[in-house]
Specification:
The complex is a heterodimer. In chain A, the strands form twelve sheets. A five-stranded parallel β-sheet of chain A has the order 10-7-6-18-29. A five-stranded parallel β-sheet of chain A has the order 20-27-21-22-23. Chain A is α/β, with parallel strands linked by helices. The longest helix of chain A is centred in the first third of the chain and has 20 residues. In chain A, about 30% of the residues lie in helices and about 25% in strands. Chain A has 18 helices and 34 strands. Chain B is mainly alpha-helical. Chain B has two domains: about 100 residues, Orthogonal Bundle (Fumarate Reductase Iron-sulfur Protein, Chain B, domain 2), CATH 1.10.1060; about 30 residues, no CATH class. In chain B, about 55% of the residues lie in helices and about 5% in strands. Chain B is globular and about 50 Å long. The chains are: A alpha/beta, B mainly alpha. At the A-B interface, helix 13, strand 23 and strand 26 of A face strand 1 and helix 4 of B.
Amino acid sequence: MPRIGVFVCQCGNNIESTVDTRKVAEEMKDLPGVVFTCSYKFMCSSPGQEMLKEMIKKHDLDGVVVSACSPHMHEATFRKACEKAGLNPYRCEITNIREQCSWVHPDKTKKTGTLKSMDLTRMTIERLKRNRPLKTISMSVTRRALVIGGGIAGIQAALDMAEGGIEVILVEKEPSIGGNMARLSETFPTMDCSQCILTPKMVEAELNENIKLYTYSEVEKVDGYIGNFTVTIRKKARYVKEELCTGCGECWEKCPYKAESEFEMELKERKVIYTPFPQSVPNIPVIDAPDCVMIQKGKCGVCAKVCGPKAIDFEQKDEFIEEKIGAIVVATGYELMPNERFGEYGYGKIKDVISGLQFERLASSSGPTGGRIVRPSDGKEPETVVFIQCVGSRDEKKGVAYCSKVCCMYTAKHTMLYKHKVHHGQAYVFYMDIRSGGKRYEEFVRRAIEHDGAMYLRGRVSRVYEKDGKVIVQGADTLSGTQVEIEADMVVLATAMVPRGSAVELAQRLGIGYDKYGFYNEYHPKLRPVETVNAGIYLAGTCIGPMDIPDSVSMGSAAASKVLSLFAKEKLAREPIVAHVDTPVCNACWDCLTACPYKAIEKEGIRDREGNIVRWHAKVNEGVCQGCGVCVAACRSKCIDLAGYRDEEVFAAINAF
Amino acid sequence: MKIKIENRALKSEELKHLERITGEVPARCYQCGNCSAGCPLSYMMDYPPSQMIRLLQLGRIEEAKRAESVWLCVSCMQCYARCPKDVSAGTLFEGLRHLALREGKDYRKIKELDMPFLKGAPQQALVCGFRKFVS
């Protein structure tokens, strides 16, 4: 006969006000197998826990039911207390009589609540009678991490982990690390030059012995589970041998063909063999194969002729590299929504309508104009510049419903940069709200208005058109209630931030969640902001949602600290709530295999003495299984059971109702 | 109404003059509307104080000078007492009155006002009125 103890919590008045806990305890006493029951004010308090431990020892209990709040709250607390008293922690079960009983039944006569509590507690007792002691699963860990994305968040995560003594693999899609931050001219609110603060970090990442850089590479495949991932990385053909190239620049000096520069946002041309920008890390060029005449037609080859160390290799192919790692940090960043979607602003048709990132390049001292702010159409200094905010953001119909968060700040910065470079110029900003939450942010915006004379107009722009070499902006100022028209020389659009085009595909490859826009889902938006539902995969930066540089950096560091604490343990311990297959019963129909959302089920063969496979059955990978129970429901031969929630236990609970 | 905003109007000499004589900078105002909320005469004005400042921010000083609001203001200075940005709408009104008066419009001599009017008007109104109309 089992020896079960039942502890009913009053939770002050939270439960007691609608549940007669003493009566519940009294009723449970008579059930077979129950040797001790009581009602207590606060079970989770330290005297409550002490009492629990004492009673386990005194009555020699082999199972404990705590009828209290949701197991989300204190399951861990009570299981730990039981463990200390020498009981297997999984022989402690929680009945939720608060969230699902006392709080939802306001019957002050306590009748409803008491009856329901009794039912629920009785069900748990019956379940407990049949459940078995479980042991936490321990797994080995590969102490190496992978960072996907070499922007500021990814670089920060990689540096922090490398500093912690972990080997890091940093994979970047572009020929150089640096991401979008490398494009920015100056950063708010301190106005320090973006490249000046970023490039030292890039160089540090290149030189750090613990960091292995894979630029111009993409993650092709991810297998395995927390602590034991295997990733396949596609190293795209650079057509340049990295080990030979010295980065002297002779090849891109002499290359006779040009293409539009992606890094300069199409404001400038680059050579077909190129590095994206002068401070590229690594400083090794790539050949843009679709534009290269040698690769396409077999004529030219100038770069190969001038290359001293003979590093050019037109025959190079994509390479696939397999790496074993224990954790992944995803930091894939953002891109801008296509401006062409908003025809009324004339982007693409009117040359002097540009995007925010293009303005950053114009204002950057290393940009296409060397830091001179000029009109793209005629190269003249613009005397009137109109900045339009919320282009695509907060636009449920044509754009996205969310606020891109950083545009208010960078537009204020743009007006300042413009005023500092064109003293007689006048900046106008059309805004809906100025969102400047952040340390020293509001002061920064006010400085742009009061000190640098930016004219802020509250309202949206309905139309932008060209007339006599001017760009006419028609909008509204809702503060004065008038329609306004401005003859501008240049218009800058603060376009919405959206996830990378390939974000969803990568999420599916990694098995992590994403929202309808393609931003990755955190495990918990407040309390676990850098973790994902897939254990061992962490997030950092703007792949989660729009955020500024300080936020991206802190998230990079946060993800790194999560990885470091994961790797700090000898062995990984995890909850034993996983599915098990009764192998002799399995008829290998593989329904479970298709049903499992975590790819935790594998095929396993049984061999005879000669080593021939004679029979197949399903096998659950305990590292990957999340204990969701989908396979249990899918299994036709009823051979899969979930530890801690076996069919026998669940049916016993239902029968007790 | 549709207006054309021009760089010239934003930086007009007259605006600069108004800023100089009042010591107030309209650009500092962030249009929270607290002045209009507290003004005892706001409900009678064609442009409440915050909108008057908006006119100045937009460079529409001529409109501001012509506004009734300037003459309705009793200079109680509640607008200034409440302003979180330390901008005084009352002072700007005073400045606008000066500018308007210097143009020689609406000028009155006290002597020319008739006695029944002077006797019937409350003393406070007379003091305010003299400040506005006769300087």
